[in-house]
Amino acid sequence: MPIDNQQVTAHPFLAALYRDDYFPDHVVDRGKAVLPALCERVEAERPADLAALYALTHAATEEFNALQADFEAAGSEIETVAREETARDFRFVAHAYGFTGADVEELIATRDW
Q1: CA of 90: how far to CAs of 41, 74, 112, in Å?
Q2: How far apart are CA 92 and CA 12, in angstroms?
Q3: For the chain, which residues make up each domain, given as ranges?
Q4: What is the pTM of this model?
Q5: Rg (CA), the chain
């Protein structure tokens, strides 16, 4: 399903990770794919409130959790820069779909990084 939100289609997800050689592009690519997929789910399911949005973002956060082993295998990890950039993009998604009151810590509450 193509994304309709023009803000989202123009957004460079995880841009800071691509600029830093510490993060292998092939793993960042997998993380980057999670975010547009989250947007597709938001557009398809149209969450009515923050609780419904948080359910979607928690599922996407679990996908990021699963990438930790891939980062480690490539000599990297989800550390401070990656955490901040990922959180920033989750907040961007929430705001792009009108959830400006979303708490960034709650958006990624299921993280283990």
Answers
A1: 13, 24, 15
A2: 11
A3: 23-41+56-113
A4: 0.95
A5: 13
